[in-house]
Amino acid sequence: MNxxxxxxxxxxxxEPSWESTLVDEVLYGMVVELLESPAPGWYRVRTHYxxxxxxxxxxxxxxxxxxxxxxxxxxxxxxxxNFCDVLNRPKVQGWRMETLPRGGVIAVEGxxxxxxxxxxxxxxxxxxxQASLLSPFYDAPCCAEETSLRKALVRCAMLYAGTHYRWGGxxxxxxxxxxxxxxxYMLCGICIYRDASIVDGFPIHAISREHxxxxxxxxxxGHVAMYLGEGxxxxxxxxxxxxxxxVNSLYPGDPDYRADLAGKITAIGSYF
Length: 272
Hints:
Elements (H helix, E strand, L loop, with lengths): L1 E4 L3 E5 L8 E6 L3 E9 L2 E5 L5 E5 L3 E2 L2 H9 L2 E4 L4 E5 L8 E6 L3 E9 L2 E5 L5 E5 L3 E3 L9 H13 L11 E2 L2 E2 L1 H11 L17 E3 L9 E4 L2 E7 L2 E6 L6 E6 L9 H4 L4 E4 L2
Antiparallel strand pairs: 1-4, 1-7, 2-3, 4-5, 5-6, 8-11, 8-14, 9-10, 11-12, 12-13, 15-16, 17-22, 18-19, 18-22, 19-20, 20-21
């Protein structure tokens, strides 16, 4: 049985308690599989990228007919801005019905008119969003050509510049290292493993360091970053002073060189 996320950001926790550790987040409009109910008001769920956690039932819509209808609708995703409001009329003065984060998924009806797109929320209500805030939703790689896809991956990762660090986070409200790189790939239509490791069954494989290119992943003990080219990488780090998205260098002579990371690369991962 499946359900749709109906909250801006739905936490996935280690245990059925609000005081439990956050292990992941699923975003508005994403579909999850319900596995069991470990306690009243909670579900263990599996995401479409095969990650599991405990979600509050209040954040999910599990009515089978609505889930089925939602999956068949044409979709868009929030990309260019951190958040996108759904309003009750196509005017900036409209009442806010819902807010979607970057990566949130919304169904669309018809074509934009005068800069506004009619959208459908997961519960069936309709509203309007500024069309410029909605981008194509990809469930396959967004670019067939390798160089273009690499550029798209880097661009999506860099959209999170300014986001603070949140353990288990995966949105502009806060993001961790694997949340950053997995969201960059997801926005480009590729599902990779959610944690900081290379896992069989997901489309990232190990390559030699001399072959790494922009969009590839750098793995460290308990940490992952995206390579940008020319010895630089972006990542989300909880280190004091960075406290979130940062760009650093692998070259010792650069002012943003991090010796604690550069010397501890365990693997280079690539989709290509």
